[in-house]
Amino acid sequence: MTAAEFTIADGPALELSxxxxxxxxxxxxxxxxxxxxxxxxxGDRWHAVxxxxxxxxxxxxxxxxxxxxELTIDGARPEETAVPLSMLGPLRAVLEHGIVxxxxxxxxxxxxxxxxxxxERRYATRPGRLENAAFFESRLGHVADGDPYAIDRELAxxxxxxxxxxxxxxxxxxxxxxxxxVVEGSPQWWRARGAARLLxxxxxxxxxxxxxxxxxxxxxxxxxxxxxxxxxxxGWNFRRAVAVVRESLRWNVLLAQSPxxxxxxxxxxxxxxxxxxxxxxxxDELVTGVGAEAARAALGIRADEKVLxxxxxxxxxxxxxxxxxxxxxxxxxxxxIGATARGTAxxxxxVIDATGYPRLAHLLLCADALVTDRSPVMFDxxxxxxxxxxxxxxxGDRPDGRRPVVVDLESRAPGxxxxxxxxxxxxxxxxxxxRYAGRYAQWRAVFNARDDGHAAARVVARILDQxxxxx
Length: 471
Hints:
Layout: E1 3-7, E2 13-19, E3 26-30, E4 34-36, E5 38-42, E6 45-51, E7 53-55, E8 61-63, E9 67-73, E10 83-87, E11 92-96, E12 99-103, H1 113-124, E13 131-137, H2 146-158, E14 163-168, E15 180-183, H3 187-195, E16 196-201, E17 216-219, H4 238-248, E18 253-256, H5 259-269, E19 274-277, H6 284-288, H7 292-299, E20 307-311, H8 315-320, H9 323-329, E21 332-335, E22 351-353, H10 360-366, E23 369-372, H11 377-381, E24 388-391, H12 409-412, E25 417-418, H13 421-430, H14 437-447, H15 455-465
Parallel strand pairs: 13-14, 13-16, 14-15, 16-17, 17-18, 18-19, 20-21, 20-23, 21-22, 23-24, 24-25
Antiparallel strand pairs: 1-2, 2-6, 3-4, 3-9, 5-6, 7-8, 9-12, 10-11, 11-12
Helix pairs in contact: 1-3, 2-15, 7-10
């Protein structure tokens, strides 16, 4: 019989013990992380301590992401072992039938609809005094990255007295130095979002939000939209239209990378208020070049090895141009499918799944070339001036016309447009980038004119000049 308990003395952990002989390997295996325990023997008993913390991509030790983790002792699951729900500081956990379920560090009562409704009534409908604080959220709280991250870093340097809150799905998200993480749905989250003078977000404001008098919402959006969105989606839908307009009315200022992005977002969200066209703060690092070495080290790729960043989103296109097919004939392929997916690197040959890598700009810097279809990454990667390859949809791939692109790649792409893995490998071997030099220059003039490495500085200067927060 294996005994178990949760402890917090040296950080949250699961402690196990049993009669000798001692197992060789005790693990918690989850979709987003795996941790291995230390095993020791004392008299006729063995003991194992399995940390409920993990380091992602060489970063700091942080609490495990929310989710289920299978407990295995020498590969077998101890079905009879159980530990009741325990609050363990930065997380909560319960062990049942060999499965550890990790939750956010808040009372489970707040998980219910009634609990969240009570918090809404307390904070959303009864706003108090605003504090000199900024509330940041990127990719719905799954990462601290993008424009909000770049603005946070600039604001921290120029206005250090401003309190900076970061909305996160759980405390496994690494927030910028000096910032305060607040877990979505917790009382601290509701209070911080309601009290901050400035909100900087790159997606919809979820849950109920009532803007207090004097509160400002800066919407940065998550990249220049390559497809129609919002009200411009094909097929009229009344409920969708109401939701889109209601959401855009929450925003005071919209940040756009370029005039193209400004037009797309204005039309898609019927936004008729202030738009700042200042470039993408997230791309400042692409100009300075800082971060490439760290990304290669975290991915385990040498400085002299070639890297292709694969950001193909359409499933039909991805089925025709498989990362493994490319890697066998080129070099390392780093896959970035969607920023909100969590996970560590899953390698297949020379293919690395970097979907969960926290800093997209660093992946763009470490890549020697990009292959994509309709990912917004194409408007960012072009800041580097490095080769780009595009996977075109085949005839009939999208017969329903869902979310049609607003950029004709066949006539404007600053690189070869291919339809198969063979076509991509041939295009990469042709080394005819000079042929696309004119298109590349025109592309950058249209989409990257303001991406000069100083976008975050300009945005924060506006924030401070207009008194959204005080220095």
